[in-house]
Amino acid sequence: MTYKLSADGLVAVDLHYYWQPIETCPLGVKVQLLGLGGVASYGNYVRGDSFWTGWAPMPRKQLGTLA
């Protein structure tokens, strides 16, 4: 993973990982959702909900590296 800190130093940003269009979001499963104000949340997307603008899959643990 390659990341940098935001200009204000408050956020670590992955340089190769992007939000996906909300139209491609799977239904009925837990994902990361990006709201209109730019704040991310975990949840389930319901088709037609106009508040969400993007989504990303959940990260997973690499075996043997995290407790």
Number of helices: 0
Q: How far apart are the first and last residues' alpha carbons, in Å?
A: 19 Å
**What is the overall shape?**
globular
| SSE topology string | EEEEEE
| Major sheet description | 4 strands, antiparallel
Into which percent range does the helicity of residues fall?
Answer: under 10%
Low-confidence parts lasting 5 or more residues at pLDDT below 50?
none
- As a whole number of angstroms, the C-alpha radius of gyration is 14 Å
How many β-strand stretches?
6
The amount of beta strand, in percent, is 35-45%
User: What is the SS-derived class?
Assistant: mainly beta
Order of adjacent strands in the largest pleated sheet: 3-6-4-5
Could you tell me the mean pLDDT?
Answer: 94
> What assembly state would you assign to the polypeptide chains in this entry?
single chain
What do you see in this structure?
By secondary structure, the protein is mainly β. Helices cover 0% and strands 36% of the residues. Strands 3-6-4-5 form a four-stranded antiparallel sheet, with no helix packed on it. Strands 1-2 form a two-stranded antiparallel sheet. A hairpin with a 6-residue loop joins strand 1 and strand 2 (12-14). It is globular. The mean pLDDT is 94.
List the topology elements.
Elements: E1 3-5, E2 12-14, E3 20-21, E4 30-35, E5 40-44, E6 52-56
Antiparallel strand pairs: 1-2, 3-6, 4-5, 4-6
